[in-house]
């Protein structure tokens, strides 16, 4: 008998912490790391039996990948973590800037729906219902806020949902990766105007060119005096983020309500 759990992300919701710290520490499950995601179905089928946890974080490709995985494992238990829309899109934007892309924020996302990220990519409640349609098992949906405020409760829910255990004394509740500061991102933003820091699908370019430039710049820029920081303005202001928050307010409230009620069903006292 095969029992499968599928962590679908979203990206920028503590996924790296889960993938590198928590999931490997779970006992009673075969964890298939994100680096082996494309071979995950083959690995499970070859084993023929056992309990498996597959992890990969999605955003724009969410529906395509859920369809791909559920076509072979419709009884899998999906795990998804959500973050409030304005915080999420800002964190995504910072990630893209760090990775060498030169979007303005409006090119990245805007409420006129002409950006790289579209409104449909941020309808989180729709993603929940998509999981319910493609998997027979009720998904576990959690909030990123709980990971920040009460990590033990957050992790205990994943363990209970997957029927696993972990040694709480050996789990560190620190972030695997913290966001880079606006100061650091300014240096990358300026540098990416002159040097192509987007590796694409080339591993040679990624490891021999991009990484040896990107990460030393990010590290050293922390110590550059403020007077030498480039004067570039690419980050969205508070008003723009508040408009995004208000636009998705109903969607977020539906997600929070779903989490509260589904948690009561999944984890009855």
UniProtKB/TrEMBL annotation:
Q: Sorted alphabetically, which SUPFAM superfamilies does this protein's record hold?
A: P-loop containing nucleoside triphosphate hydrolases
What InterPro entries does the entry give? P-loop_NTPase
Q: What is this protein called?
A: Sulfotransferase domain-containing protein
């Amino acid at each position: 008998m095969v029992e499968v759990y599928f962590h679908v992300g979203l990206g920028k919701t503590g996924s790296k912490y889960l993938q590198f710290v928590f999931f490997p520490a779970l006992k009673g499950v075969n964890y298939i790391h994100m680096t082996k995601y494309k071979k995950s179905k083959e690995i499970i089928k070859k084993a023929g039996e056992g309990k498996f946890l597959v992890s990969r974080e999605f955003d724009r490709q969410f529906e395509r990948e859920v369809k791909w995985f559920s076509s072979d494992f419709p009884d899998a238990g999906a795990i998804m973590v959500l973050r409030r829309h304005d915080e999420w899109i800002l964190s995504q934007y910072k990630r893209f800037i760090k990775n060498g892309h030169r979007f303005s924020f409006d090119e990245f996302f805007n409420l006129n729906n002409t950006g790289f990220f579209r409104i449909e990519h941020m309808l989180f409640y729709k993603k929940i219902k998509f999981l319910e349609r493609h998997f027979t098992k009720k998904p576990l949906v959690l909030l990123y806020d709980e990971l920040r405020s009460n990590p033990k409760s957050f992790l205990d829910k994943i363990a209970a949902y997957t029927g696993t255990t972990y040694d709480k004394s050996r789990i560190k509740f620190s972030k695997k990766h913290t966001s880079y500061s606006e100061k650091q991102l300014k240096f990358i933003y300026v540098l990416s105007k002159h040097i192509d820091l987007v590796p694409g699908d080339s591993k040679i370019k990624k490891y021999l060119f991009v990484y040896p430039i990107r990460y030393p710049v990010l590290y050293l820029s922390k110590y550059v005096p403020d007077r030498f920081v480039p004067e570039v303005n690419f980050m969205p202001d508070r008003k723009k983020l508040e408009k995004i928050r208000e636009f998705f307010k109903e969607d977020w409230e539906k997600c929070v309500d779903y989490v509260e009620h589904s948690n009561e069903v999944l984890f009855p006292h």
